[in-house]
Amino acid sequence: MRIMKLKIAFVTMILLMMAMTLPFASADTLQKSDFSMGSFAKSIDYYDYVRDYASANNITLPSGFSNYHANTYVVYVNTSGVQVLYAGLENVTHNGSAYLNIPMQSIIMHYKTVNESQDVIAESTFLMLMAFQESPSSSFPGSPTINDTLYASFSLGYDLTSLNATVPALNSQTELIPLTHSEDNLSWSWGMSYSNMTALWWETYIDPSNPHYDSGFPVALSVYDELSFTYNLTIDPTAHTATLTENHVIGRMRDLFIGESPLLWVHYNSTGTYGLLGRKLGNSTIYDFIQNNGIEMSVINYQTLVMATHQTYSTTASGENATQTETPVSNSSIATYSDDGEKIFNADFGTKQNYELYNYTADPTETTYQTYQAVTRTANAADFADNTLFDYQTTLARLLPLVVAHMYPSLYARAQATISDLSKANYFYITSYPEYSGYKIVHDPTFTAYIASPQTTPTSTPASTPAPSIGFIIAIVIVAAIVIAALATITMSRRKNKR
Length: 499
What we know:
It is globular and about 65 Å long. It has a 26-stranded antiparallel β-sheet that branches. It has eight helices and 26 strands. By secondary structure, the protein is mainly beta. The chain has helices at about 10-20, 45-55, 285-290, 380-385, 390-395, 400-405, 410-420, 470-490; strands at about 40-45, 70-80, 80-95, 100, 105-110, 120-135, 150-155, 175-180, 185-205, 210-215, 220-235, 240-250, 255-260, 265-270, 270-275, 280, 295-305, 310-315, 335-340, 345-350, 355-360, 370-375, 375-380, 425-435, 440-445, 445-450. A hairpin with a 2-residue loop joins strand 2 and strand 3 (about 80-95). It has one domain (about 10-265, about 290-495).
């Protein structure tokens, strides 16, 4: 059974919910001098950082940009010859009229390679959750493919109080996990958790010749307990490695709204099936619905690596080009090399091939779990790079090269040309969870950078910082403004099916 689309009246209700005004958290400031510190963790308005940068470099921004804000949790670790910058988006707003919680997680790492002659900027970004229903012709069982029915799960923060009495008040919030470290500064941890996440599902297509999504209105709306990310950085001076382990938690799905007919909207939760006015329609729960319809869950990520004077390329364990192929890597890894053959980075999926699934129906306390094998594969970058749906998640990521200008200025130009362009990613990879049913998932892939002999003191930031091109800054700021405005006013004119 294929999930049917929600009807116009439900979308109108969603638009009304989007007008909710929530308090914008007070933000600290980010200065150039901060990047000479050994570490820091602060919540900033990233668009303030952009505005300050533009002012310092005599760049004129579009009028009205002062009304845009992006509250962002920023963590910086600068030790042992490695600089790591984490940016986790808390929310975005235009003049306080609507606050949108959009899960975006990016890591930027700078380091020198083992032979100490080459500088590397590595960027890893969480793009989105993707639910999918497999077709009989699926080329990768347990993983979303071009022949499957795909749903981009785009999370936003809504208050659902006015929806109906059967739905609890849900204000999506973020919890910042503090930065901690060991006494020898070789182990670090931090993170962010989004709670009560409301996600709209759009049917999307990963045909490289026509990547797009049905932009008229979402096919479903769901609520997750949480979406959490924790990071552990471990530096090993003897092995010449800096290893980042990312643990992510996809909380159980609590509520799911489906349009069964023009006049019948159905709400599934853990106790049964309800109409939007609260009348119970049946005993089929949200978990029954997801299991009976064969809905599985996956996570989409991409990885980019740039060097000052060399090109990079990434290969699977079997030697295939990771950028342009669809190859299983569940029990192996993806290695990245400089064009002179030096290995500079490794994404290892075999270190924890299994994921934990917490069956809420069997154990409402979610203290026990079963393990299942995750399915991880590379994806053709063209399947995702040109899909305009991802403008929502990647707008802030396009501004991240400005941080590189302060972390390591000589690599700014390369980062500007690469990090801000999804089509230039070294590879996309999809991690899927075939056993799902809407329950809580815990999993953690591992990333390793191959570094020069670690230093014992923080690496100071070079003094000269090149100003970015005016065109780049203005173009990205305009895109940011358009995206936020579009998110706050998703109009009915977008009902045209792009399929």
